[in-house]
Each structure stands twice: as structure tokens, then as C-alpha cells.
Design brief:
heterodimer, A: 566 residues, alpha/beta, Rossmann fold, 2 domains, six-stranded mixed β-sheet, two-stranded antiparallel sheet, 24 helices, 62% helix, 8% strand, B: 82 residues, alpha+beta, six-stranded antiparallel β-sheet, 2 helices
């Protein structure tokens, strides 16, 4: 048995999915959070049945790859759980009537029931059930209210009895809405007013600047505070004695070099030591994790309040010059956390051209938080302006490249066309859950890669293979980029993990000028292996080759120019 | 005989003004895409805001807000409600 969750975007399908299956998936307050189908199963009537969460769609004729997934899956399902936004009954029913035409057994879930009541919207659920002939339940998924009722009524799901002419669908929807919906006029709430204000040109830009400044300030405050004042101290106080004991026991030699790295007998320079137990743990846990945590906390707030699509609308005026519409800022924002989910989110863009441009720009101009944390730690001591040069170079490169790609890449660039969800007060429980999923993923994926990177560097250094690499790359690395020859190894390690690669620069004693060039080149030149695989999946082989060639060319060009100009 | 209506493009409506959609000046693909979101002939709308420099137009359908590019907005003909 296959149960499908089908509905318009942003009606809460993923929240219901989490409740039914017990598997937590990321849900946010913007259309297009789910871009591929999520499968799980749950116990129902003493058997294990499949539950599939589908990307939201407005119609059964698809207009984006995310919607195609939904359209093609519906044929395979046995029962459709049609999730409806009770605050927007009319548009939801348009899809419901199309689902009735498929003849599949249907159960209707009036979600966001509490919000509809709050807005003065009343829906006669038994009346609706009588008219279209399928069971109707109401839920408030975010708090879990009504989920039990949903499960209880699953067995009653049946094909709809409503007969109508498909050309008159909206007219039919209008008739049903008139029969079951009552609206009591309420005054605009302050959230609605704020919602509109953040969409208009003047107030909107002011609000956007304030939100961005506040977000970056908060990320820096939490990240720096946690890193410098908590985790670093914990490492020095509790971990250093353990490592020193191991070091004294092992003595010097190959094993010690790999495990502990280069340490003095009384204290440890965790960034410079480069052992598995020193740098290999310190970089991901004490340096990167605090910033990633801070970033995902702020991102969660921006997602759940409903601010991101508003930012997308404001950005649209500018981004369509890059061949993208404003929604492209969503993959880019996600890419700031980690490029992998960022690239997957490019599926909310309709055309191949847009997805290619968005993915390439994300790889080149959007450094992930892990990498930025190490760059900030490294360059930070020369003041915020050096970091500013790095960020500005990335942004400027992204813009210029976008304008060029828009002219060169063949294909369509459809305009923005999205529903802006209302502002909602975020639920702390939901935010915390989402933060937990993302942090768990980060630790599970980042830590092994960091350790592998550190291990490879140590083996290469120990057997003096490093010099061979250094010689091969030295014309470009030293001659053109002005970096020490051994930094070539950082470029190789960067394929595993960018944060380790940046960390490798520490013992090389680079000047401020060289650090800026190296950071920019490392950010742009090639994706890390995780990103590379997703890029391949999203763009296909030829897209991947084009995109990576662009990265190599652009990073060499920009790095060299920076070296000449600075 | 139907009354002649004062047809203007959605882009020419001022922010805060209301109108009724009288025609979608585009092919079936555009019509079905707009209609899936609830934008079709006869629908009453309010223009919440329109961005300058070719930015998107924000349309209000009841409490729902929809952003659409100015190219699409220019293909929606409305009659202003005074």
C-alpha cells in the first residue's frame, strides 16, 4: 500500500509526514521546501504501509522539475492524502477537483485549521464531505492536533463522487466555496501589515538591510562566543592533557605524527599541529561547528517566519539581470550553510538555464559556513576589512559571471511567480528539531572527511610526496597566484573538505595578501567531493564539466588579478 | 451589448488600487499557469505593490499574496474598481 501526501506548496505536508512516519524532515514556511519525494513507512491496521511526501504542486500539469515528480508519482499511489490550506480553500480545492478526476481514493485534510479560525475563516467540514463525497478531517499539524483523527479516518478514503466539467473547474470551486466557507471580517493583524511592508520597495529594502545585518551580527556573536569562549577553552582545559599524555607515550615517529601532529611538550597549537586528534577534531568541533550552528539557527528563524520569499521578491529586480529570478536566493542562502542542500534547492527554479547558472554561481561565489569559519579565524586577525575583501571579491565575481552567463547560456529565464506565505510566529520546538537534523548531518558528514583530509596530508608530508605536487603546480601557484609552492597541497585537500584546506595554510605562514588570494581561490576553484557529486546529479555530466571548467578558469583569473592588484 | 470597459494592464494599476481581471493576454500555457494559482478572468484583485526597475508585481487575492514578474503582470488586463 502506498499513501501519498499531495497538496499545494507550503500547506504543511512535510509536517504531517513527520507526525505519521516518526521521521523528522525539514519543513519551513516557504513554497518549495520539499523538492524531491521523501519516503517512509508507518504501521496502519497492523501492516507496514508506505508513506510518500511529494513536492507541492498547484496543478497536475507540471511546470518545474519538483512538480514533475508529483505528477508522475500520483499514478503509482493507492491512497491520496490531500492536504489543504484552510486559509486558502479556493485554490486548494482547484487541485482537489483535479485529484478527484484521477479516480484515486482520497482523504482531505484541512490543515492550518487554527490559523483559519484566527483569521475569521470558518469551513463546514461535514458539508464539504457531503458535497464531494470523500472524508474530510481538520488538523493543526504543527502542534499535532487532529493527527490522530487523520489516522482514524484513513480507512474511509474513497474516490470522490463529485461530477463536473473540467473546463468549468474554477466555477465549480467557487460554488463549493460559497456553500461551505464563512468569513467574518477581521481587521488586518500587525503581522499582515508587516508582511506587506516588507514587500514594498522602500520599507522592504530597509527591512531587508536590517534583517541581513541582524542575521550576520547574530551569527557572528553566537559563533564567535561559542568558539572562543566555550569550546576553545574546553579543548585547552580537558583535551590538551589527554593528547599530551598520548604524545609522551608514543614519542616521535610516524604514528605520533599522524595522530598528534607537531606539538610542543606543554601546549598545543591546535590549528598548526595537524594531527588527527588535534587539528582533526579541533577544526570541525571548536572552529566550524559553532558557526554552522549559529547559521542554521538564524536560517531556521528566517525560514519559519516566512521572510525568505519576501527577500526573494526584493532581490528579483536585481537577480533577473543574472538570468535568475529572485527565488534563486533561496538555494544561495542554503548554500551558505553547505553547498549540498543549496544545489538541491536549485530545483525550485523552472528552467535548465536558471538551474545551471544558480548552481555554478553557488559553487563559485557562495562559500559554505565551514569554510568561512576557518577563513574568518585566519584572516580575522588582520581586521574585518581583509575578510571584507574576500567576501566582496566573491560577490563581485558572482555578479559579473552571472551577467555573462545570462548572455551565453542558451535557454529560457522564466520570471518569478510565487505565492508569498503569511508571516508566522515560529515554533521553537520545530526550529530546534530542524537545527538538530542539520547539525547531526553536519557532524556525520564533516567529521570523517576532515579526519580523512588530515590523514592524507600527513601521509603525503611524511613520505615527501608533497614536494612533487608542489613542483607540478608551482608555475600557477607561485608564478601567477604568488603563493608558496606547498599551498598546492591545500588545493588538493580542498576536494575533500574546504575547511581543512584553509586550515592547512596556518603553518605555512602566509602574509595577509597571500591569505586573501588563497582564501578566494580555495572558495572558487573546485567544489568539495560532496558538492561535486550533487552537482553531477543536478546538472548531468556535460553540465558538470562546463560548470567545473568555469570554476577553474574563474578562480585562476580572479586569484591572479587579486595578486596583481593588492 | 456589453458595456465598454476601461481596460488597463496590471502593471499600470497603482499600488493599493483594486481591479477585476478582464482578460489574460497570453497563450494557453500562461493562462493555465496563472489559473492554477487562482488568477483568472473575473477575479477581483488588489495590487499590493509594484517594484520599479522592472521588478515583480505583488498581487493580493483576498489574504493571499502572489509575486509575479512584470512581463507576466503586463499580460493581465484589469478593469479598475473605483
Amino acid at each position: 500500500m502506498k499513501f501519498l501526501l499531495v497538496g499545494n506548496p507550503n500547506v504543511g505536508k512535510s509536517v504531517i509526514f513527520s507526525h505519521l512516519s516518526g521521521v523528522t524532515v525539514i519543513a519551513s514556511n516557504y513554497p518549495g521546501t520539499t523538492v524531491e519525494l521523501t519516503r517512509s513507512s508507518f504501521r496502519w491496521q497492523n501492516q507496514l504501509v508506505d508513506l510518500i511526501d511529494l513536492p507541492g504542486t498547484y496543478a497536475l500539469e507540471p511546470t518545474s522539475p519538483a512538480e514533475e515528480v508529483t505528477a508522475s508519482m500520483i499514478a503509482e499511489g493507492d491512497v491520496i492524502i490531500n492536504v489543504i490550506d484552510s486559509t486558502n480553500l479556493e485554490r486548494s480545492l482547484n487541485l482537489t477537483l483535479q485529484l478527484i478526476k484521477t479516480g484515486k481514493p482520497l482523504l482531505i485534510v484541512l490543515n492550518l485549521w487554527d490559523e483559519a479560525n484566527h483569521l475569521g475563516i470558518g469551513i463546514d467540514a461535514p458539508g464539504l464531505e457531503r458535497i464531494i463525497g470523500v472524508p474530510v478531517v481538520s488538523t493543526c499539524a504543527i502542534t499535532g492536533e487532529g493527527i490522530k483523527g487523520l489516522v482514524d479516518h484513513l480507512s474511509e478514503a474513497r474516490a470522490g463522487q463529485y461530477r463536473f466539467d473540467d473546463n468549468e473547474r474554477w466555477h465549480e470551486v467557487g460554488k463549493i466555496v460559497a456553500a461551505v466557507q464563512t468569513i467574518v471580517h477581521r481587521h488586518h493583524t500587525w503581522l499582515e501589515r508587516l508582511g506587506d511592508a516588507s514587500l514594498s520597495p522602500f520599507t522592504g529594502v530597509a527591512i531587508a538591510l536590517a534583517v541581513m545585518a541582524g542575521s550576520f551580527g547574530l551569527i557572528r556573536f553566537i559563533g564567535e562566543g561559542l568558539s572562543n569562549h566555550v569550546l576553545e577553552i574546553l579543548f585547552h582545559r580537558y583535551w590538551t592533557p589527554v593528547v599530551l599524555k598520548i604524545y609522551n607515550w608514543l614519542g616521535t615517529g610516524f604514528i605520533s605524527e599522524i595522530l598528534v601532529g607537531r606539538v610542543q611538550t606543554v601546549q598545543i597549537n591546535y590549528l598548526g599541529a595537524f594531527g588527527l586528534l588535534t587539528t582533526g577534531l579541533f577544526v570541525p568541533i571548536a572552529l566550524v561547528l559553532p558557526y554552522v550552528l549559529a547559521f542554521y539557527l538564524v536560517l531556521g528563524l528566517l525560514e519559519d517566519t516566512g521572510y525568505l520569499p519576501r527577500l526573494a521578491v526584493l532581490a528579483d529586480t536585481f537577480t533577473h539581470r543574472l538570468g535568475l529570478h529572485g527565488l534563486a536566493i533561496i538555494p544561495m542562502m542554503l548554500g551558505l550553510g553547505c553547498n549540498v542542500p543549496g544545489l538541491m534547492a536549485t530545483r525550485i527554479l523552472e528552467s535548465k538555464k536558471q538551474r545551471f547558472i544558480a548552481a555554478t554561481l553557488t559553487c563559485i561565489a557562495v562559500p559554505c559556513m565551514s569554510q568561512m569559519a576557518v577563513i574568518a579565524g585566519l584572516i580575522g586577525r588582520y581586521g574585518i576589512s581583509s575578510l571584507g575583501v574576500v567576501v566582496l571579491t566573491l560577490m563581485l565575481t558572482g555578479m559579473i559571471l552571472g551577467i555573462i552567463l545570462n548572455r551565453l547560456v542558451a535557454g529560457e529565464s522564466p520570471e518569478i511567480f510565487i505565492e508569498i506565505p503569511p508571516y508566522r510566529l515560529p515554533y521553537l520546538r520545530v526550529i530546534a528539531k530542524k537545527l538538530w537534523i542539520r547539525m547531526k548531518k553536519f557532524m556525520l558528514e564533516a567529521e570523517p572527511m576532515v579526519l580523512l583530509g588530515v590523514l592524507i596530508i600527513n601521509i603525503l608530508t611524511y613520505f615527501h610526496i608533497l614536494n612533487i605536487f608542489a613542483q607540478i603546480f608551482s608555475p600557477v601557484v607561485t608564478g601567477w597566484l604568488g603563493l608558496p609552492a606547498q599551498s598546492a597541497l591545500a588545493l588538493i585537500v580542498g576536494f575533500l573538505r574546504k575547511d581543512v584546506a584553509v586550515g592547512m595554510l596556518v603553518p605555512m605562514g602566509l602574509s595577509q595578501h597571500q591569505l586573501i588570494v588563497a582564501s578566494v581561490v580555495l572558495a572558487m576553484y573546485f567544489p568539495c567531493v560532496a558538492t561535486f557529486v550533487v552537482l553531477w546529479k543536478e546538472l548531468g555530466t556535460s553540465g558538470l564539466i562546463k560548470s567545473t571548467l568555469l570554476m577553474i578558469a574563474v578562480s585562476t583569473l580572479v586569484g591572479g588579478l587579486l595578486n596583481l592588484l593588492l | 451589448m456589453p458595456e465598454p470597459v476601461d481596460k488597463i494592464r496590471l502593471t499600470d494599476l497603482k499600488s493599493g488600487e483594486k481591479g477585476t481581471i478582464v482578460e489574460i493576454l497570453g497563450g494557453p500555457a500562461l493562462k493555465s499557469r496563472l489559473s492554477a494559482m487562482g488568477i483568472f478572468e473575473g477575479k477581483e484583485i488588489v495590487k499590493v505593490s509594484g517594484h520599479f526597475l522592472g521588478g515583480p508585481v505583488i498581487l493580493g487575492l483576498g489574504k493571499t499574496r502572489i509575486a509575479l514578474g512584470s512581463g507576466m503582470a503586463g499580460k493581465i488586463a484589469v478593469e479598475k474598481i473605483k
